[in-house]
Design a protein that fits this description.
Strand order of the largest sheet: 1-2
Largest sheet: 2 strands, parallel
Radius of gyration: 16 Å
Helix content: 40-55%
C-alpha cells in the first residue's frame, strides 16, 4: 500500500479483520490507487471498490508479482513487531493505536532522520 512517491503510510489497529478494512481503504485511499496485498480474503473486494489491486502469494514464496510487491510494507510490520517486543515487551489494546502511530510516524519520516526530533518537539509543543 506504499508507493515510491510522497505517499504516507496510515495504520489503524482494528479489533477484527472484516469489512471494516474495506471501509478504511475507502476513507483513506484515493479511488484508482494501486494497492499491493497478500492473498488474504479481506482484500478480495478492493478491485470492485475501484482500486488497482494486485496480490502476491506468500504460500508459494512469491514476494513480487509484476508491479505489485509487499516488501516495503512487510518491512514496516516487521519493524513494528520488533519494536514492541524489544522495547515495550507487550502492549495493551488500550494503547496499541498510540504505538502504531509512533511507528507509522517513524516509518514515514525515515528518509529525514535529522528532522525527526525537531518535528517531534513541534508536535508536542502544539498539543
Amino acid at each position: 500500500m506504499r508507493a515510491k512517491t510522497a505517499a504516507t503510510t496510515t495504520t489503524r489497529a482494528l479489533a477484527h479483520r472484516s469489512s471494516t478494512q474495506a471501509r478504511r481503504f475507502q476513507a483513506n485511499v484515493a479511488k484508482g490507487a494501486r494497492i499491493s496485498t497478500d492473498t488474504h480474503g479481506t482484500y478480495r473486494t478492493l478491485r470492485k471498490l475501484g482500486y488497482r489491486h494486485g496480490k502476491v502469494n506468500h504460500n508459494i514464496d512469491q514476494w513480487k508479482n509484476g508491479i505489485y510487491c509487499t516488501n516495503t510494507f512487510e518491512g514496516f510490520w516487521s519493524h513494528l513487531k520488533r519494536g514492541i517486543k524489544s522495547t515495550h515487551a507487550s502492549v495493551s489494546k488500550q494503547h496499541l493505536q498510540k504505538y502504531v502511530d509512533e511507528f507509522s510516524f517513524r516509518f514515514n519520516k525515515r528518509e529525514e532522520p535529522g528532522e525527526m526530533f525537531s518535528r517531534l518537539l513541534k508536535q508536542i509543543s502544539a498539543s
